[in-house]
Amino acid sequence: MIDITNSGKAAEKTAVALGYFDGLHLGHVGVIGAAMAQPGLKPAVFTFNCDTTLPKFRGPEDIISFENKCELMEKLGVQYIYAPDFAEVCTLTDEEFVKKILIDRLNAGFACCGRNFRFGKGGSGTPERLAEIGAKYGMRAEVVQDVCLDGQIISSTRIREHIRKGEIEQANRLLGYELWYRLPVVRGNEIGRTISFPTINQIIPDTNIIPRYGVYKSYVEVDGKQYHGVTNVGVKPTVTRHDGTGAVMETHIIGYSGDLYGKNIAVALVRFIRPEVKFSGLDELKQQIARDKDNAMH
Fold first, then answer.
1. Which of these three, 109, 127, 149, is where a domain ends?
2. Which of 94, 63, 84, 78 has the alpha carbon at shortest distance from 7?
3. What global pTM score does this model have?
4. Which residue segment(s) compose the domain that 260 sits in?
């Protein structure tokens, strides 16, 4: 996937999917799919970089990081991406947005979006305006219908609510994949090693929505191989943080031993096992982790 955010333009004629695409859930995949279905045009995405957007413009907590979102887009087959900071485009009129970004930078012959997508200064640009302005420059436009599951529209708001409640299986159904994080492994106090359950520790960025504190069945990818895992999400005393804030994922990787410090490891949350509990001592903790491990293997 070619990123033309900072320089250059699309060398080939493109079909552009427009949206914030937070979480890249099944509804978003429907919009991108419409762009991919255009014969003779290369699929492209216009979105925002949620990791650099100024705080005053930032929306609700992001479901996945921008880097992870790009990784998923590339797997879908997107070939070009343009993802500026919101501050860079929010002062453009709706026609300037279409001309300067879609036509001049993305070389768009087609553009598509969901019915709620807005663009241009003050959100004045509607999907109808996208078609109207695009026609002046030889660009077709299409509004992609909402995707429903269980009789309800799939939305990032619904997914966030499930994640906050620890209803990870419901969230994953709407996402179309297991909620995952690819994060660097940081050092903790290594208490897990003393009770024969070594863990990796990863800090969830403050820009991400935090799942309900507790223990989850997880899958962990190490060197291209997938392992079962037990992941505790919470503010754990076994992990040292310099700023004292944020949530930590502490994962025991079943059947793996090795040093992963400093590596970016992908952990996917599969099922909520139990709430976070404070134990009386390490023996009680060890017994509970053994039960959690057995649970995670089924």
1. 149
2. 84
3. 0.86
4. 179-296
Residue 168 is assigned to a structural domain of this protein: no
CA–CA dist 237, 79 (Å, integer): 43
Structural domains of the chain, count: 2
Is 14:106 a contact under the CB 8 Å cutoff? yes
Q: Are residues 139 and 209 in the same domain?
A: no
- Is residue 97 located within the same domain as residue 210? no
Residue 166 falls within a domain, yes or no? no
Examine the domain organization and report whether 145 and 183 are in the same domain. Answer: no
Q: How far is CA 190 from CA 115, 195, 240, 252, 291, in A?
A: 50, 10, 10, 12, 20
Question: Per-residue confidence of the chain (298 residues) as pLDDT tens digits?
Answer: 999 999 889 999 999 999 999 899 999 999 999 999 999 999 999 998 766 554 444 555 889 988 899 999 999 999 999 999 888 888 899 999 999 999 999 999 999 999 999 998 888 899 999 999 999 999 999 999 999 998 899 999 999 999 999 999 999 999 999 999 999 998 765 555 544 578 899 999 888 899 999 999 999 999 999 999 999 998 754 444 444 456 899 999 998 988 898 899 999 999 999 887 776 666 667 676 777 777 777 7
Q: Which pair of tokens denotes residue 233?
A: 């999400």
Nearest to 115 by CA among 251, 19, 40: 19
Chain mean position to CA 187: 24
